[in-house]
Amino acid sequence: MTNHVSIPNKTEVGINPKKLSYIVVFLYSILIVVWLYSNNIVISFVSIALSSLISCSIASILFAKYINSVNLSIELPTNIGMVDTLLDIYIHITNVFFSILKIRNVLLLTDPGLKSHLHKVELKNNTISIHIKIHGYSGTHVIRGILIKFDDIMQIFDISFKIVFKDEITIRIIPSSVIYIPSTITLRQYIPYAPLTLRRKGVGIEILSVRDYIPGDEYRKIAWKHTARLGKLMVKEFEALTHRNAIIVISIHSDFFTEYSDIFEILVERILGLTLGLVRLGMSIRMGVITDESIFISNAISKNNVKDIYEFFSTISWSHIERMIRNIYSSNKILRWFTRNLTEEYCKEPCLVMLVLDPQDNFDIDVLKLIYNDLKYRGHTLQVVLISPLILKFLYLRANLNEFHELLNKIPIIKTCIRLLKSMNIQSTFTL
């Protein structure tokens, strides 16, 4: 795939003096005075040379102010990658003033989940060819433009040139293959007993079948009557009663979309492992994700199309909403509406409904009560997984002292939520 952007939508030039720029300008003034009044030829020559370099730097800065249009083209061999792979992007920019400036760095104007580093820069006939390597976290990322940082000849000023693309570039990152998939015993905490069930081998009270003993089987499962009759050890297989279908609703606010850690990737990996484990048990899964900006709904995931879950996570757009206004636009605010619509649309029989969320305040706890009543009225079973960026970081990464204090401040709301869930006899857990 190759994208071409011929005309940028907007350009901005920024010029900021460095710390030593005022000293250089003062030195320039002294050199001019020395050149004018010195009778020594060597001193005069040195003064002229240095003052000429400074003059060129100042001239380049003056020219930079008038860079208001460029010819730009972009080549992107592919816009789909995986978490552990690098993608290439080639940018060609033509402007006559670029020949007198030196590129220090090139940054992509994008969300914090997409990383880039400058690989190679070439200048030929007033055209700068820039090769950038990019990689990122799972999801869909948008490149809105680039920021080029220049140095003048004497490196007196920081010169930045911002280009906003007329057509944004979309990059899709697919999660890596999941290594950890919960065992059947671990999955039991997510699969409560259900009246409308799928018959399968597992933990239960009804005997499904009897088979030959295999070393490692529990002795309490030995079928003694069959063993005595057949003259060899036989083991009872029990019938596990589970739902046939499950809805997983994940509410992710902006604190999960951060550049400083792998919090979002850890969350994706754990949910993928849980989903694949449930699919292995024969369940059909449909997933819905709410962010602060949008909602996403997957197709029904079963053993026949299990790879679709990876594609689904690559479609989740990274949030651009600032943390300071998150409480107003929190994804939890529409959690009840979203859950009700998903279950009404896709659950034609009683389903297991799993909510994965980070409760922010008492409003979110009240919403959990309403969701529980809605689902109970329709015969569904509710399971709640409490998550938090701070909890994930504390469990799987390194948390600093300030983050530890933030986690302590969050404990009261978590305790309140747990007490509510216990009072309603709702299964809940902190880890995936």
Automatic annotation (TrEMBL):
Residues 209-275 form the DUF58 domain. The chain crosses the membrane at residues 20-37, 43-64. It comes from Ignisphaera aggregans (strain DSM 17230 / JCM 13409 / AQ1.S1). The lineage of its organism: Archaea, Thermoproteota, Thermoprotei, Desulfurococcales, Desulfurococcaceae. This is DUF58 domain-containing protein. Keywords: Membrane, Transmembrane, Transmembrane helix. Pfam families: DUF58 (PF01882). The keyword Secreted does not apply.
